Amino acid sequence: MSNFSNSIINKLSQTIKVKIKMKKSIILAFAALTEIFTITSCKKKEGCTNPISISYDESAEVDDGSCRLAGLGGSTTIVAYPRHHGKDTRPYKAFIKFNIQDFPGADPTSYDLELIADTTENHIEVRNLKPGKYFIYMTAFDTTIAAGVVGGIPYTLLQEGGEVNLTIPVTE
């Protein structure tokens, strides 16, 4: 073979080697990108998956322990005033249900906490609450009509401490 032929064969050989290396690089880059997208797209979003929690994240797929639920152990006090037609009454009892917004009924055993009023006061203090969702139900006596009155409301407590004054509408 002539030098010219050898030269052409060497150049072709080098060109083919370069193209093969480029194809391998492209294939490796594509494989790496595919792996990154696969790993990223398979990771489920973490967050609070409990819908009653005040930190609920409806897009979360995996619970990460960040749910904040109502209950005792906090530093907030709710001062609950039972009012009948906007007027003060004498409270008898307050019943507190944690982590609920719907009326659980008048049966005292349906509640998590029962407090008896100081009959010299026009309110009941519910102490040491954590932020969360509550249902507060009260029984009281309206001296203007000489009759017992009852009622309750859902309440979402967001603050971390201090005191919240809350009017609880009651009726015959």
What's this, in brief?
The protein is an alpha+beta fold. The chain has one helix spanning 3-42; strands at residues 46-47, 62-63, 71-84, 87-88, 90-98, 113-116, 124-130, 132-142, 147-157, 161-169.
Structural features, described:
The structure is a single chain. With 172 residues, the chain is an alpha+beta fold. Helix content is 23%, strand content 41%. It has one helix and ten strands, in the order αββββββββββ. Strands 3, 4, 7 and 10 form a four-stranded mixed sheet that branches. The longest helix has 40 residues. The chain is rod-shaped and about 125 Å long. The protein starts with a helix and ends with a strand. 19% of the residues are buried. The mean pLDDT is 86.
Helix count, DSSP H or I runs of 4 or more residues: 1
| Helix percentage range | 10-25%
Oligomeric state of this protein: single chain
Overall SS class = alpha+beta
Beta-strand percentage range: 35-45%
State the end-to-end CA separation.
115 Å
Order of helices and strands: HEEEEEEEEEE
Give the secondary structure arrangement, pairings included.
Elements: H1 3-42, E1 46-47, E2 62-63, E3 71-84, E4 87-88, E5 90-98, E6 113-116, E7 124-130, E8 132-142, E9 147-157, E10 161-169
Parallel strand pairs: 1-2, 3-10
Antiparallel strand pairs: 3-4, 3-7, 5-6, 5-8, 8-9
